[in-house]
Amino acid sequence: MSKKPSHHPVLRFAPSPNGLLHLGHAFSALVTWQAARALGGTSLLRIEDIDTERCKPEFVDAIFSDLAWLGLDWPTPVMLQSERLDVYADAGNHLRHADLLYPCFCSRSDIAALSSATDPDGAPLYAGTCRQLDRGQQIERLQRGDPVQFRLDTQTALDRVGMLTYSVVGPLITDRPQIRYARPERWGDVVLQRKGIPTSYHLSVVVDDAAQAITHVTRGRDLEAATDLHVLLQMLLGLPTPIYHFHRLILADDGKKLSKSKGSPSLASLREAGWTPQDVRRALGL
Fold this sequence. Notes:
- This protein is of the alpha/beta class.
- It has a single domain (10-284), classed as Rossmann fold (3-Layer(aba) Sandwich).
- The protein contains 10 helices and 10 strands.
- The strands form 4 sheets. Strands 1-2-3 form a 3-stranded parallel β-sheet. A 3-stranded antiparallel β-sheet has the order 4-5-8. A two-stranded antiparallel ribbon has the order 6-7.
- It starts with 9 loop residues before the first strand and ends with a helix.
């Protein structure tokens, strides 16, 4: 059974240093710090840098600079996910020993060809092909060195834990939480580990939230569906389930959310153009 979070409110802002922060990140950070103040708690900064190909030290420095410019501060040292790979591997091993992870050798094209549905992110839903492999077939392909990723057997996991719920609060973070039912099954058998990479966003985020005693998670509505999966992992690993708040997204002129990959204006570029932290807050309605 998952544990309840601690009483002292602790929140976190956890960006990935794979580009420069934009107004969407600023909104999420400011909402998090405001919520921490309203609760009389603490706001932490965490750097989610498990993507070693895209994450760069210069972007970490830029995160520190941008947040300080906004007038935010945080306790140190700052947690870096790249320094915690052994911890994530242990969590994955726990799931393996419980027979809840299995190796998958399907390529993206294989998955797309066999899929008849999509997950909440719009990606092809995995059909469970490799879940049917027997132990001998798994060992043979692993020893052969076939490209592999390790997936959660979601239905088996759900059969073990039963119905899942979590608590959600609205814009007034101090309001009484509302109970919501989790539906991890809509994600299918998600990838939690890859060959040479002992974690994924889903696995590392629940492990880190527990390690930092996070009581409240503020995140954009685009991550609302992923929370269902995180609640399941928390239950399987015996970790606390925080209270969640899903804030609105900051959209571009085309109605789509801001994105590093789409070249949304960075906070650094706005600062160079003469913006002040007060301008940022006014633009975000804060």
